[in-house]
Amino acid sequence: MDACRKPCGSTKKSDTHRREFETSDDVFITPKPTRLIQRILQIATDKDSLILDSFAGSGTTGHAVLKQNAADGGTRRFILVEMDEKIAANVTAERVKRVSQGYSNAKGESVAGLSPDGGGFQFCTLSAEPLFTAQGQIRDDVRYAQLAEFVWFAETGTARPHPGPLPEGEGEKLSPLLGVHEGRGIYLLYNGILKDKSVGGGNVLTGPVFDVLPTFGGPKTIYAAACRLGAPRLQREQIMFKQTPYALAV
User: Fold this and answer.
1) 83-113, pLDDT tens digit by residue?
2) How far apart are CA 211 and CA 205, in angstroms?
3) In Å, how far are 12, 219, 250 from 178, measured between CA atoms?
4) What confidence tens digit (pLDDT) does each residue in 27-66 have?
């Protein structure tokens, strides 16, 4: 009981602490003390719990989870949700990154990271509209790049890496080969990515379509509307076929 009555910080101290992580002028009136949230985690969670904060704000919950994991060797994970895009990128995510990897505090002192390898932290942005209809079908107006992001995350559990800045006036150069993850090439045939004028727009995996895909010598996962390749060739080419949209968890 005495431990529960120990001071767990104050809003004023929390605000001062928070400013060490910010890259913007956004102001939070009542930031929660990290020690308070950490104490709640000690009481209410197990070492392997998943914590959801739907109003992430300055990222105190993520910070507290990392601190508690460091304190008791836990493997807690967290999901933080912040509706304000500016705050999400410049405050919430920035704080989690710095706390994970290390930073310099207001006094110029070096503070060691709580999870130097990043701890698997990812910053993701939700699309403005759902990609699927209520019946689980891909909406007609979904662009290739949007579905590619979804497929990559569904397949790898990670945000899809993006190339560096493109020359002014140039859009992203799209390819049916989304990338390689852990030695497996991931492909998506959708929305006429191959500029195919035939029926199905090249969205069906056939022999001729496969022959013009970007080459990858290892195992492949190919998402397409249908597959016309026989089992022997699928095995020979190391292809795992997945049908859209049914292979995608909606």
Assistant:
1) 898 999 899 999 999 999 888 877 888 888 8
2) 10
3) 47, 14, 20
4) 566 678 899 999 999 999 999 999 999 999 999 999 999 9
Q: Where are the alpha helices (DSSP H) in the chain?
A: 11-18, 34-44, 60-72, 85-87, 93-101, 144-156, 207-211, 231-236
- The average pLDDT across 123-142 equals 78
Residue extents of the structural domains in the chain:
3-112, 144-243
Percentages (nearest 5) of helix, strand, coil residues in the chain:
30, 15, 55
pTM recorded for the entire structure: 0.61
Overall average pLDDT of the 227-240 stretch? 96
Q: Own/partner pairs for 95-99, CB < 8 Å, 24+ apart?
A: 95/18, 95/21, 95/22, 95/58, 95/59, 95/62, 95/63, 96/59, 96/62, 96/63, 96/66, 96/121, 97/121, 98/20, 98/21, 99/21, 99/62, 99/63, 99/66
Q: What gap in Å lies between CA 198 and CA 205, rounded to an integer?
A: 13
Q: Compute the half-sphere exposure of residue 53: CA atoms within 13 Å on the CB side of its CA.
A: 20
Q: Report how far apart, in Å, the C-alpha atoms of 111 and of each of 35, 60, 97, 103 are.
A: 17, 17, 13, 5
